[in-house]
Specification:
Number of domains: 2
Oligomer: single chain
CATH architecture of the largest domain: 2-Layer Sandwich
CATH superfamily of the largest domain: Chloramphenicol acetyltransferase-like domain
CATH class of the largest domain: Alpha Beta
Number of strands: 19
Shape: elongated
Order of helices and strands: EEEEEEEEHHHEHHEEEEEEHEEEEH
Structural class: alpha+beta
Number of helices: 7
Radius of gyration: 32 Å
């Protein structure tokens, strides 16, 4: 059975296309959807697929020809097994629509076309309920989904939003970087050191709660989680005994942990035991966020990007480096005044870090 394959309508307003390249030769055996030819219109360059399984009998155009829509492009001898699904019985659709349908896993025969003579358009595919790529929830993403669901459903969040003048914080970083043997510093190790100092003053913020045993544990060790953007999603490696480490040591360990997270090299023990989390989304350009508390902890310090902003001081407007903070607390353990006192100390330490040992 011979099938004349006509040049399809490959886009709105297109009435012809220039043949750029054949991907088959006369006499070649082909399968449906194998590449047939490349054509170019005034809108795009596309690859037209073979309409059937069978053998190429004739190629009716030459490279460089301008082929009108509806003009015979090629003639095929269809295979017997392909007879029920030849071009005459296939839904009307452009190659772009067919490719999109394959990408979405949609059987075009089940789609009602809205175009002329029932032609299936791209919009018709997007309106199909199953028109989506389904990605299995596995690995790190599954762990994140479960952890965040638990956090949002079981932890009543209260959030204290603050702004702090980061002038002295940046000066402190500069002084530290000028010391012999110093490493280049981001603000994250400084904020980690500040968090530890504030936690020492407010033990209920460095805590965990067990409702089944009806106990609140006030931790005397300071294991600080560092929220890290890894390829699979948010990962929180932990700096154990952060209170025993200098800013340089914190900087080196944070760099090591975040690199390991991004390279899938974290060990299980490096993800366990956190008592408090620092979330510096300012490194991603964020100004203000809403940190979600990690189950097993009762607070999360979110820090935005340091930005120069106008502030009023003694009747004058000054430009200062300002950092926005969002500190989330578990209301089962922390009341507003407790979280507020902790937030105030964090701000004070950012604005005057000289009291930090």
């Amino acid at each position: 059975m011979a099938l004349e394959f006509r040049f399809p309508d490959i886009g709105e307003g297109t009435d012809s296309g220039e043949l750029l390249e054949w991907h088959v030769v006369e006499g070649q055996e082909v399968r449906e959807d194998d590449p047939l030819a490349d054509v170019e219109t005034d809108k795009a360059r596309v690859t037209i697929p073979c309409p059937t399984t069978g053998r190429v009998l004739e190629l009716r155009a030459k490279v460089g020809d301008l082929v009108p829509v509806g003009g015979v492009l090629a003639v095929f001898e269809t295979a017997a097994v392909a007879a029920p699904t030849t071009q005459d019985n296939r839904p009307l659709a452009s190659p772009a629509v067919r490719k999109r349908g394959r990408d979405l896993g949609i059987e075009l025969g089940q789609v009602k076309g809205s175009g002329p003579e029932g032609r299936i358009e791209l919009d018709d595919l997007e309106n199909v309920p199953s028109a989506r790529n389904v990605i299995p929830l596995r690995g790190t993403r599954r762990a994140i989904a479960r952890s965040m669901t638990e956090a949002w459903q079981t932890i009543p969040h209260i959030i204290d939003y603050r702004e702090a003048d980061a002038t002295e914080l940046l000066a402190w970083r500069e002084r530290l970087e000028q010391r012999p043997g110093a490493v280049r510093l981001t603000v994250t190790p400084l904020l980690t050191r500040i968090a530890v100092e504030a936690l020492k003053r407010h033990p209920y913020v460095n805590a965990s709660i067990d409702l089944e045993r009806e106990e609140i544990t006030l931790h005397t060790e300071y294991h600080i989680g560092i929220a890290t953007a890894a390829p699979e999603g948010l990962t929180v490696p932990v700096i154990h005994h952060a209170d025993r480490k200098s800013v340089n040591e914190l900087a080196e360990e944070i760099a090591s942990l975040t690199t390991a997270a991004r390279e899938h090299r974290l060990k299980p023990e490096q993800l366990k035991g956190g008592t408090f989390t620092v979330n510096n989304y300012g490194a991603l350009g964020g100004w203000l966020g809403t940190p979600i508390i990690k189950p097993g902890e009762v607070a999360n310090l979110g820090v935005g990007r340091v930005q120069e902003r106008p502030v009023a001081r003694d009747g004058h407007v000054l430009i200062k480096p300002i950092v926005a903070l969002a500190i989330s607390g578990d209301h089962r353990v922390l009341d507003g005044h407790t979280l507020g006192a902790f937030a105030s100390d964090v701000v004070s330490l950012i604005e005057d870090p000289r009291s930090i040992p």
